[in-house]
Amino acid sequence: MADPIARFRRWFAQAQAAGIEQPEAMAVATVDGSARPAVRMVLLKQVDRDGFVFYTNARSRKGRELAATPRAALVFHWGRLGKQVRVEGRTREVSAAEADAYWASRPRASQLAALASEQSAPLATRAQLLATWRALARRYRGAPVPRPAHWTGYRVIPDAIEFWTHRDHRLHDRELFTRARRGWRQTRLQP
């Protein structure tokens, strides 16, 4: 039986080997309580048998939307390779231990930025954000930057993964994998 996670890893490795800038960049779509969609770019930080992981502020718009409706859709597009991958599934927060481990791997300046930003909240001026960042840099000089409790990761547990390959005359290849009771069911789709 075909394994879409293994295929994703192969395609991702091809994107890396091709020198594509930020092959880990993905669009993530969520919906609010009125089913209004929102999409934004984030970075994939881990993929394994359990799903696709990204990190963000749980108080951000996407964090609030995922709390209310724990489902998301992802898209990876590697235009130079003529490939894209779509993922749809339910979401859940990663464990505190996973979030801590990833937080510890981040550059210090990025840790400070996550601590300084109330992501998605209105901001009077950019100078205000930079002043907060500088104050936090002074406060934690010589000390570890603590992970805020509201800064966490989300795992998208796929129900469906579609692989799209560009072909001439817009006769693209599309293969859809849907989770079955045991493993995955594979279906070819019209372009």
Description:
The protein is of the alpha+beta class and 191 residues long. The chain is built from 5 helices and 9 strands, in the order H-E-E-E-E-H-E-E-H-H-H-E-E-E. The radius of gyration is 19 Å and the shape is elongated.
Tag the structure with descriptive keywords.
single chain, 191 residues, alpha+beta, Pnp Oxidase, Chain A, nine-stranded antiparallel sheet, elongated
Give a summary of the structure in a few sentences:
With 191 residues, the chain is of the alpha+beta class.
Separate helix tally:
5
Gyration radius over CA = 19 Å
The description of the largest β-sheet is: 9 strands, antiparallel
Shape: elongated
The overall pLDDT average reads 96
Q: At the fourth CATH level, what is the homologous superfamily? A: Electron Transport, Fmn-binding Protein, Chain A
By CATH reckoning, the class would read: Mainly Beta
User: Which spans of ≥5 residues are poorly predicted at pLDDT below 50?
Assistant: none
How big a fraction of the residues is strand? 35-45%
Name the structural class: alpha+beta
Count of distinct strands: 9
Measured between the Cα atoms of the first and last residue, the distance is 23 Å
The second-level CATH architecture is Roll
Order of helices and strands: HEEEEHEEHHHEEE
Looking at the structure, the CATH topology is Pnp Oxidase, Chain A
